[in-house]
Amino acid sequence: MGVFQCLSLAVIWITITNVSYSTAIKCYRCSLTKTNLYLTEPSGLCSEFDYSDRFIVDCPESTFCVKKTYQAKIAGLRNGTDRFCAFQKFETHEVVNREWIPKVIIEEPYTENCTVINDQGLRTGWTEECYCKTDLCNAAPTCDSVRSLAVLLSSAVIILRNIPLLG
Predict the structure, then answer these.
(1) Rama region for 76: left / alpha / beta (φ>0; ψ in -120 to 50; rest)
(2) 17: in domain
(3) How would you class 69 by CB atoms within 10 Å of its CB: exposed for 0-12, middle for 13-18, buried for 19 or more?
(4) How far, in Å, CA of 57 to CA of 109, rounded?
(5) How many domains does the chain have?
(6) Contact 69, 144 (CB under 8 A)
(7) Tens digits of pLDDT across the chain (167 residues)
(8) What is the C-alpha separation between 31 and 46, in angstroms, rounded?
(9) 75-84 burial by CB neighbour count: b if 16+ within 10 A, else e?
(10) Prediction pTM value
(11) Is 4 contained in some domain?
(12) Is residue 160 packed enough to be buried (19+ CB in 10 Å), middle (13-18) or exposed (0-12)?
């Protein structure tokens, strides 16, 4: 093997071993209220959310980001938002060489979409949960506004199709 080939292989080896492979997603994290003091990651209030780096967290145990929008009927009408990493970590054990070994599985129970959850007459008016799979995707406006636009456009198409052409 020539010197050039050895140098080429060395450069490739250094490049491969120094590249960090990451499957973690980055999400925005903020909450409607002050969070637990024992959290290891910072979490600001969503009322102060400004798309800045202080709201960005790594989610090594998630492949989805979440944005939850609430409307609560508590002392009047209240609206709020939470943004965070989806809960996907499942801890279990498996037998290896006749010993129980802890095992962590990152499950994929979600799909990329938004769902409105009705509280069935309880104190909250509704909750909209939006799941997405790209970095910082949970910064988007509520899916309600997107859904409203889709309904408006669909209605316009139906109305225009039913108008006879003048001629």
Answers:
(1) left
(2) no
(3) buried
(4) 21
(5) 1
(6) yes
(7) 554 444 344 434 333 333 333 467 999 999 877 665 555 555 688 888 999 999 999 999 999 999 999 887 766 667 889 999 999 998 999 999 999 999 988 888 899 999 988 767 666 678 899 999 999 999 976 444 444 444 445 545 555 565 665 54
(8) 5
(9) eeeeebbbbb
(10) 0.62
(11) no
(12) exposed
How does strand 124-132 pair with strand 99-106?
Answer: unpaired
Please give the residue range of the domain that contains residue 71: 22-162
Closest CA to 131 of 87, 90, 91, 70: 87
Distance in angstroms (rounded) separating the CA atoms of residues 102 and 83: 29
| 54 occurs within a structural domain | yes
Q: For residue 59, give the nearest of 90, 104, 28, 31 by alpha carbon.
A: 28
* The 3-state secondary structure of 96-143, one letter per residue: ECCEEEEEEEECCCCCCEEEEEECCCCCEEEEEEEEECCCCHHHCCCH
Q: Could you tell me if residue 115 is inside a domain?
A: yes
Which residues lie closer than 8 Å to 105 by C-beta, 6 or more apart? Answer: 89, 90, 91, 92
